[in-house]
Amino acid sequence: MPYNPFGDYAKRGYLRNVLAAKRAARVKAYEHASFLLHVEDAVALLAHAGPPITYEDVLKVHRTLFIDFYPWAGQDRFQLRVSPHPHRGSIHFEQSVEIRRAMQTALNMGNEADQMKAQPGAVLSLMAWAHPFLDGNGRTILLTHGELCRRAGISIAWELSDKSAYLDALGRDLEDPSSGCLDAYLRPLIGPARQATQLIRTYRSMPGLKGYDDPVQRRPKTTGRFAPNTETGAETKELPRRRRP
Fold it and tell me: DSSP string of 180-223?
């Protein structure tokens, strides 16, 4: 069954996207096209935010990236009054009434430069667990985390990461926040801070953020504002976790 928190998938497509698209491959391609068109604006928005970066900035980033495709972009699950207790299998994301608290806790950690340098994985893990949005969490969190890293004087060489190994480390960290698995995985990828142009180039080229898993799969035709760069690849998955104390 498709993810259908609004209850109107048959009429309005996946998450009420502007095209009423239903086929997963097509939806992911258009999502990524919207991301590519607006990633530069979102990075600029974050660069001029605060300090500190706040939850409101995270909402603005999501809206900037996805408003062309999702009319509800920039609103979290609590604001939309849907999907209050999302889960995957036996593991649950944060409940919707606690999204802001969970994300702000992660931002408070990330806004402290020394803590961000020491625990970039813990910050990322907590953001992933908060899971504010119905879709687009991975890309929104990636950009926000990247700006927190930049302000702390570091960067993550995502282009050198392995998707399977990353997801395994993230999953272990979500299951047990004290494990430090994601911090350990990211440590060899930490380098000096990168300029905005370098970050944008990295984000645009990351295969793990694109819309397909199968490179030989037929790609949907795109028109208008969604036309550029709908290449093959797969969106980074956010893994759920048990409730944190």
Answer: -HHHHHHGGGEEE---HHHHHHHHHH-GGGSS-S-TTSPPPP--
Q: What is the pLDDT of residues 97-126, one digit of tens each?
A: 999 999 999 999 999 999 999 999 999 999
Among 97, 57, 98, which Cα is nearest to 74's?
A: 57
**Inter-axis angle of helices 120-130 and 99-110, to 10 degrees?**
160
Instruction: Specify which residues 191 forms β-bridges with.
Output: 155
C-alpha to C-alpha distance for 170 and 186, rounded to whole angstroms: 10
For position 133, which CATH number holds?
Answer: 1.10.3290.10
In whole angstroms, give the CA distance from residue 29 to residue 230: 6
Q: With respect to residue 239, please indicate whether it lies within any of the assigned structural domains.
A: no
Which domain, by its residues, includes 56?
Answer: 11-78+89-208
What residues does 88 pair with on adjacent strands?
Answer: 91
- For 99, the enclosing helix (H) or strand (E) is helix 99-110
Among residues 223, 1, 4, the alpha carbon closest in space to that of 135 is found at 4
Evaluate whether residue 28 is within a structural domain.
Answer: yes
pTM assigned to the model? 0.84
Please report whether residue 230 resides in a domain. Answer: no
Say how far apart CA 134 and CA 36 lie, in whole Å. 19
Q: Which residues pair with 92 in a beta bridge?
A: 87
Average pLDDT of the chain?
A: 86
DSSP per-residue string spanning 25-81: HHHHHHHHHHHHHHHHHHHHHHHTS-SSP-HHHHHHHHHHHHTTT-TTTT--HHHHT
